Amino acid sequence: MKRLLLGLAGVIALAVPGYPADLPARPYAKAPAMIAAVYDWSGLYIGANGGWGSSSKCWDNVTAAGVFVASDGCHDASGGVAGGQLGYRFQSGAFVFGVEGQGNWADLRGRNVSLIAPGASNESRINAFGLFTGQIGYAVNNVLFYVKGGGAVTDDSFRSFATGTNVVATDTVGDTRWGGVVGVGLEYGFTPNWSAAIQYDHLFMGSRTYTFTNNGVLAPAGTTFNERIKQDVDLVTVRVNYRWGGPVVAKY
Fold it and tell me: 34-200+223-251, what's its fold?
């Protein structure tokens, strides 16, 4: 009986189609291609910034005709800055091109004792500044390195004090001064629309001549003198931007 059952099982195995021994091998399916997310820097953006600035000021006493008389010393006007920026970028391949406007409140101030009249100390302040620049950058996915350049404007004020006091000795002379700016920055996109950056700017503001009027504290009231003031500004700011458009795209 045992031999009979084994024989019947063998006959059934040969007769039934699709028996596992006769099934074809499972077809090989190729794995889907990997998709890499590529950050796109294109679009309109708006943001805020804050940081530190320092402005080198050198005062020279000159005649009314602008002829140099004597150096009156130099100082650095430094302090905090805070403001915002608005810009647009366009990405082509790894290169990113853009334009930007930036406006900042500032509190950069400094003094030095006059080399000509040590009883007086010269003070400079920058109360605000603006930058209008073009940019070109190179992107490695969501990391962007860029350089920038364009125009700059500062809101300045100058006056003199009695040395060692806060007693004002002259009128306050204000000026809106135009110049140029160059800068460099590194920006990181931490979401598809948000990015953070650190940026350095140098402003070339040139020299301007101003007439100061004494108020009677250190010299007869109404008498005047002229100072030619040279000014450069260095800025380091941290920036956060929100961008519209230019979503992350897929690259195979």
Answer: Porin (2.40.160)
